[in-house]
Structures are given as structure tokens and as C-alpha cells.
Specification:
This protein has about 325 residues and is α/β, with parallel strands linked by helices. It is built from 10 helices and 10 strands. The chain is globular and about 60 Å long.
């Protein structure tokens, strides 16, 4: 049994996962409402809230699974990338629990965790496949040849897809998190009302800065009444452009690699239009798209644990290697 802990951004999460990928519990305490007033995550606020929540969340994960710390065989925790202050809360808690019980500890890369969300439950996805990882902080195309590793095929040159959704939502006067707000409003609009650009950059990389600028100019060109009337159309057209870029690049990457299957993970994987545009793709379960600890415990099944007490000097890292 693996106890997973995740605090890379604004979700405090803990989970118990069995060795076969069975999710025994998955508890996520979101800070979305706390950061909504700022229009985005404030790192210091997130870190302080993690300190308040980490103990209760771990206790609830154990209680939900009907387990105690004596039942845990190893502890897994997100080491990075993410907000360093937030990561250190989870890492410190994980080291304390592992050290107190003389358990091994598995430091997990957050990106590997997202991919490993596909290895949980009954509908586990077997490599090889090409994976789109799209979230608030990352947009990557990955060639997954085996569980526990991947090769990067492409990434964003500027904004991540989730970041583009959040910034677009702010331009449209919508709430936070922006991706869910745009997805909701887009259902009421015409995705063909506006033609927004999809950047074509070299290789298999992405770029969303030009799209964001195009939305800015479109909004500026409308008076307040017209913006209110066209807000749903703008949201639908903007979302369509992002989805077109993500789905097109994923299929292009799959064709180049000759992979037999495609998959999508990360917070943007919850987007309804993206799911509709890729009916043949394997998607992370909706509950496991946003940051969670079950995916971290899942990734720990395919990583080497650090024995007690060698992990005490382990540090967090903010950026992906």
C-alpha cells in the first residue's frame, strides 16, 4: 500500500493506492475559492493553506481507506515541478511520516504523476502511446514507451494551455479557474463566430501567446454592451482554437511516432470539447485530471524508493528538467 502526497500548487491531496493500481482513497482539498479573488494562485497564500490542510487531508485519506499508518509500505510525494513553498510542505510531511515509521520514500516528478493517472483503476492504459499532458503549468507531447518513463516530443514555447484558458477567462471577465468557466460558457456560444489563429511553430511545439493577444484585441474592439452579448461566442471560438491546436499536434505526433494509441492527461483533459474532438483517445478519469495524490502514488509503483533515512536531505525543485 502506497501513501501518496501532492502539494505542488493549490490542491492539498493525499491518497492510498494498492500495488495493482486500485485507488483505496483519494482526498483533494482545493484552494480554488481562496485564490479566486486574486484571479490566480498566490504562492505564499497557497503554502500557508497547505500547512493548515496537510494533516487533516492525510488523516481523511487513511480513514476513507480503512487503513492506518501501520498498513503503509511506502510513502510517495511530489518533489517538483511546482511552487517551491507549496512543494516543501508536502515533502516535509512525507519525510516526517516515512522517517517516523522507518519506511522508504519515493520522490515523484509531477509530470510522471499525470501520465501515471492512466495506470489506475480497471481501465488501465498500456504503453506504447503518445500522450498530451495539458495543464495550467505545462503543455507537453510525450512518447510513452513503458510505464515509469517517457520521451518528450514537444512543449509550449510560451503559455501552457491551461494558462491560456485562465488568461482568456480574465479577459472575458469570467471567474477562476478559467478553464472550467470558459468550458461552461462556450456551450452557449458559436465556436465559428470568430476566427482565432492557431500558431504553427517548428516541430511538435505549441504557442498560445498570439491566440491570447488576438482575444485581447477582439475584446477591446467591443463596447460593454456588445461584449456582454458576444461573450459566449468569444469563449466558444477561443476554446475551439485551443482545442484545435492541442488535438492537431497530438495526432501529428502520433503519426510521426506510429504509435497505436493516443492519451490525454492533466487539468485540460477535463475540457468537454477536447474530449469530443478526440473520441479515440484514452483520457485520464475526470476525478484524476486535476492535481491529485492518487497519480503520485501510481507513479511511485514504477520508481525506485529511497531507503530510510537517506531521503532526509531531499529537496524540492520548481522547474522541470
Amino acid at each position: 500500500m502506497i501513501l501518496g502526497i501532492e502539494t505542488s500548487c493549490d490542491e492539498t491531496a493525499a491518497a492510498l493506492v494498492g500495488g495493482d493500481g486500485t485507488v483505496l482513497s483519494s482526498i483533494v482539498a482545493s484552494q480554488a475559492s481562496l485564490h479566486a479573488r486574486y484571479g490566480g494562485v498566490v504562492p505564499e497564500v497557497a503554502s500557508r493553506r497547505h500547512l493548515e490542510l496537510i494533516g487533516p487531508v492525510i488523516r481523511e485519506a487513511l480513514e476513507t481507506a480503512g487503513a492506518g499508518l501501520d498498513d503503509v509500505d511506502r510513502v510517495a510525494v511530489t518533489r517538483g515541478p511546482g511552487l517551491v513553498g507549496a512543494l516543501l510542505v508536502g515533502l516535509s510531511a512525507a519525510k516526517a511520516l516515512a522517517w517516523a515509521r522507518r519506511l522508504p520514500l519515493v520522490p515523484v516528478d509531477h509530470l510522471h504523476g499525470h501520465v501515471a493517472s492512466l495506470y489506475l483503476g480497471d481501465a488501465q492504459v498500456e504503453p506504447p502511446f503518445v500522450c498530451l499532458l495539458a495543464s495550467g503549468g505545462h503543455t507537453l507531447l510525450l512518447d510513452v514507451g513503458e510505464r515509469g518513463s517517457f520521451r518528450r516530443l514537444g512543449s509550449t514555447l510560451d503559455d501552457a494551455a491551461g494558462e491560456a484558458f485562465d488568461k482568456g477567462a480574465r479577459l472575458l471577465g469570467l471567474g477562476y479557474p478559467g478553464g472550467a468557466e470558459i468550458d461552461r460558457l462556450a456551450r452557449e456560444g458559436d465556436p465559428e463566430a470568430y476566427t482565432f489563429p492557431v500558431a504553427r511553430v517548428a516541430g511538435l511545439d505549441f504557442s498560445f501567446s498570439g491566440l491570447k493577444t488576438a482575444l485581447l484585441y477582439a475584446v477591446r474592439g467591443l463596447d460593454a454592451d456588445e461584449l456582454e452579448r458576444r461573450r459566449a461566442d468569444l469563449a466558444a471560438s477561443y476554446q475551439r482554437a485551443i482545442v484545435r491546436a492541442l488535438a492537431g499536434r497530438l495526432r501529428e505526433a502520433a503519426a510521426r511516432s506510429r504509435a497505436g494509441r493516443i492519451a490525454v492527461v492533466g487539468g485540460v483533459a477535463a475540457n468537454s470539447e477536447l474530449r469530443g474532438a478526440l473520441p479515440d483517445a484514452a483520457f485520464a478519469p475526470l476525478a484524476l485530471c486535476t492535481d491529485n495524490a492518487a497519480m503520485i502514488a501510481s507513479a511511485a509503483r514504477y520508481a525506485d524508493p529511497i531507503p530510510y533515512p537517506d531521503y532526509l536531505a531531499l529537496d524540492a525543485y520548481a522547474s522541470a528538467a
